[in-house]
Amino acid sequence: MSQIPTIKQVRAYTLQGGGADYHDQADGHWIDDHIATPMAKYPEYRQSRRSFGINVLGTLVVEIEDSAGNVGFAVTTGGEPAAYIVEKHLARFLEGAKVTDIERIWDQMYWSTLYYGRKGIVINTISGVDLALWDLLGKVRGEPVHQLLGGAVRDELQFYATGARPDLAQKMGFIGGKMPLHHGPAEGEEGLRRNLEELATMRERVGPDFWLMLDCWMSLDLNYATRLAQGAKEYCLKWIEEALPPDDYWGYAALKKNVPTGMLVTTGEHEATRWGFRQLLEMGCCDIIQPDVGWCGGITELLKISALADAHQALVIPHGSSVYSYHFVATRHNSPFAEFLMMAPKADEVVPMFHPQLLGEPVPVQGRMRLSALDKPGFGVELNPVCELHRPYTH
Ligand SMILES: C[C@H](O)[C@H](O)CC(=O)C(=O)O
Ligand SMILES: [Mg+2]
């Protein structure tokens, strides 16, 4: 057997601009247009998520180089604080290790950061390192990540679209459309009426059979979420997403009992690790969990989360995250479809989710993606050289 390369150097960079929903989008983009948020109770922070700092962190880029000159990389949220954690803390667990030591490295990253980590930015950072390790291993082996995960269980992925225009997504071949909720409890009865009107208008446009979902981005309370779900029954809402703050497991368990029969409760994009998802699953909080592979602990942890969900008969439909989730979804029976986040400002065309950061990022065609689009080594993407990388710390 040929010798397994060892990890020579770990480098952490930051990058501003573009890059999915927590990054810098220009004025007029649907993703930052009066979306209901937990900050909407303050009128001055209601119109735009950038106003309260959704883009402050920017992107973390992790690069891992091995002794044979292969370089794996990944992008996630976390920016400069995450770069500090990689360089000053996590790099020690990688340098000198074999490129196959992924499980041991994850374990050491998690337990060594426990005293200041567990969730949020630290787990985003660990996720970025883990994804870069899987990318590197794929490049060393000359195989796509889905093959390293045990192989695909289907030849084609099917997508629903998240964006302001499910009616256009329907024409583009997606199986459903998830709209952002625009008004939270602070906008009172008038806001609730407008939320339901928007849903009614969209149902009218897409006809009776197309899936319609509402993404509430943690903005509601149990009473409001229950009333919204009950009002939305008439318009056959397929699921109500992230209605409550992620820590309100008790609220989710109650909401799941309160929603009309057949309507699904989904959540989990801001949840992390097997322990967080265990809480959601054991308390009966939702029907579908939506881990983001760049935030929940990476692929290594998502495998564990997914097995746990399967045993609870819950589906795993990862949040956004492009190629990092496509390679995973292709390999799991309990992930029968995937999300595509419409990053075109008017949600009127399919554009790569992480544009301009990645080169070679595949996108759905007619709401579908052939497995052959994911056949390159690693995650099959490259960093776009036009993006300016900044390395704020070294070790
Ligand atoms: C549209 C939502 O507010 C959010 O930005 C994206 C999201 O939660 C999702 O794709 O799910
Ligand atoms: Mg969501």
UniProtKB/TrEMBL annotation:
Which terms does the record give in the GO molecular function aspect? L-rhamnonate dehydratase activity; magnesium ion binding
Query: Which EC numbers characterise this protein's activity in its record?
Result: 4.2.1.90
Q: Which superkingdom does the taxonomy of this entry point to? A: Bacteria
Which N-terminal stretch is annotated as signal sequence?
none
The record describes how the cofactor is bound as:
Binds 1 Mg(2+) ion per subunit.
What does the record give as the active site?
A: 319 (proton acceptor)
What is this protein's function?
Answer: Catalyzes the dehydration of L-rhamnonate to 2-keto-3-deoxy-L-rhamnonate (KDR).
The UniProt entry, under HAMAP family, shows: Rhamnon_dehydrat
NCBIfam families registered for this protein in UniProt: PRK15440.1
This chain's protein is named: L-rhamnonate dehydratase
Source organism (scientific name): Comamonas koreensis
